[in-house]
Design goal:
alpha/beta; binds pyridoxal-5'-phosphate
Length: 222
């Protein structure tokens, strides 16, 4: 069930801090998304290509769709025509495919590079060497149809707040170090540092996040 009250509380809490809210709607119905849309929300995040494509066709055109999951290169073509921001670019191979599909669709696609910051092996993301490979490729590719507008990361699911804060700090340092390489996200004044979910967004904002991806707090448990 959509928690409209939690939505407005969260909006109020972030309104003074220049933080963008992406409402994560994976596994939630078109109806639920529409309810939040009616309250003014325009940025929604999805993790699965087929689910996203089906929902996108049924919902208003002015929704800004964020792809926040692990994206397989062979599926980029399905979202390339409309995606607003691909968060979580976690390989050079994927970056190259996004470039190819962006050219085909005659548009520029905005992306975040996802950095692996958690202890867990299972979370996707670039290590620092791969991050540099991506920057090198971007700098040497002509006719680029990709706009790198910042970084994204997921901290460990851990009770240890120090651990989580340190992982977030690490991402913040990388963001600061590479700041000059980022372009601005359409309609905003600064590049994006996307970190923080339902369980850790206050901590993420303390560590400098300017985009939080919140699901269960708004839509209920999945
Ligand atoms: C599911 C998901 C979220 C939202 O998680 P909640 O804990 O429900 O807020 C945020 N980011 C990513 C990458 C996700 O996959």
């Amino acid at each position: 069930m959509v928690n409209i009250e939690a939505y407005h509380q969260l909006k109020a809490a972030i309104s003074t801090q220049n933080v963008h809210l992406v409402a994560v709607s994976k596994f939630k119905t078109v109806n639920d998304i529409q309810l939040l849309y009616n309250e003014g929300q325009r940025d929604f995040g999805e993790n699965y290509v087929q689910e996203l494509v089906e929902k996108q066709a049924l919902l208003p055109n002015d929704i800004r769709w964020h792809f926040i999951g692990h994206l397989q290169s062979n599926k980029v073509k399905y979202i390339a025509p409309f995606i607003y921001l691909i968060q979580g670019v976690d390989s050079l191979k994927l970056l190259k495919e996004i470039q190819k599909q962006a050219v085909k669709n005659n548009r520029t696609i905005q992306v975040l590079l996802q950095v692996h910051i958690a202890m867990e092996e299972t979370k996707f993301g670039l290590n620092e060497e791969e991050l540099h490979e991506c920057f090198n490729w971007l700098a040497s590719t002509p006719d680029l149809h990709i706009k790198v507008v910042g970084l994204m990361g997921m901290a460990s699911f851990s009770e240890d707040q120090n651990q989580v804060a340190n992982e977030m700090k690490h991402l913040r340092v990388l963001y600061d170090n590479h700041y000059a390489k980022f372009e601005k996200l359409d309609g905003t004044a600064t590049p994006v540092l996307s970190m923080g979910m339902s369980g850790d967004y206050p901590l993420a904002m303390e560590q400098g996040s300017n985009m939080i991806r919140v699901g269960s707090l708004l839509f209920g448990a999945r």
